[in-house]
Amino acid sequence: xxxxxxxxxxxxxxxxxxxxxxxxxxxxxxxxxxxxxxxxxxxxxxxxxxxxxxxxxxxxxxxxxxxxxxxxxxxxxxxxxxxxxxxxxxxxxxxxxxxxxxxxxxxxxxxxxxxxxxxxxxxxxxxxxxxxxxxxxxxxxxxxxxxxxxxxxxxxxxxxxxxxxxxxxxxxxxxxxxxxxxxxxxxxxxxxxxxxxxxxxxxxxxxxxxxxxxxxxxxxxxxxxxxxxxxxxxxxxxxxxxxxxxxxxxxxxxxxxxxxxxxxxxxxxxxxxxxxxxxxxxxxxxxxxxxxxxxxxxxxxxxxxxxxxxxxxxxxxxxxxxxxxxxxxxxxxxxxxxxxxxxxxxxxxxxxxxxxxxxxxxxxxxxxxxxxxxxxxxxxxxxxxxxxxxxxxxxxxx
Length: 398
Known about the structure:
Blueprint: E1 4-8, H1 13-26, E2 29-36, H2 43-52, E3 57-62, H3 64-78, H4 94-107, E4 112-114, H5 123-134, E5 139-141, H6 152-161, E6 174-177, E7 182-185, H7 198-201, E8 214-221, E9 224-228, E10 231-232, H8 235-248, E11 253-259, E12 265-271, H9 273-289, H10 292-310, H11 317-329, E13 335-342, E14 345-352, H12 360-363, H13 372-383, H14 385-395
Parallel strand pairs: 1-2, 1-4, 2-3, 4-5
Antiparallel strand pairs: 6-7, 7-12, 8-9, 8-13, 9-10, 11-12, 13-14
């Protein structure tokens, strides 16, 4: 029997060319695996193409709810970002795809795993780090690091030699899409001195926003959104509805120059409308449910978690420990947040939680039931003691 290779197959030009290339160069059986996280064409279209190109088997899984519940929500409850602004929409989809590929590679007793990521981006590192952890004994084939092809045009010509007519080779931008976000890179965006054509680059975001403001209520349980405007929804449906709402109002658009794992600076335009709304709602809830000490510790851990996700360390002891912190911290992150959404704006109208640390009778300037004013005299004296001693030294010019 021939050796088996499980290919992370998207149906795009690169992974389509990889199927016959693997068969020719390794004399192996290829299993084309598709994990739909909101990024794939119809299953029948993908299956027909993969089998025509020589795949022995085609596997397709619908995983959008799992993607949001087990990956997006843990990231959101942590408030994780990369370089302050990027909500990690592309990066967070890679661990799930990698995990499912690894699972099928083991079940099919595959000797190889293959992917179509290039050597200049982040995804080849994310995939290969995940597989090093999940299936360390299975060898990885990364064609872009091996073959002599250097362009889309060359891949199209190669596919023509195996009977596949791909069509035009020009591709203005590189787009990544999933349930959570949409990103656009390459093309005119590579000139960071200039803006871009909104009509060409944006697909989700309304650029001419004329709608009046609207309110949306989010019910959150342990850091996960479970209801919108009083209606219970699946994780996928929550994100889809928030995306529709945010897109209509121009929410969640980010034009950023980020530094990839390998040090290359790259410009991307990201559309994450639903994630931006969810992030704001969760932040409002954290402000009333978490103490200052917990909130500040979480801010530090959030930056760490964002870096881990971006760098492809989801499957690691480090990441598991950080995620465990947020899972524990979010046990009391339960309540309801009401947001006002207007043209390119978000505002918190109200927030409430059974675990709120906010007490109106304590915060109010109109009453002092706990005699805080009197207690503050000694409290202030202790807190200012160090400053007092330093000031006396300064006066004495010691």
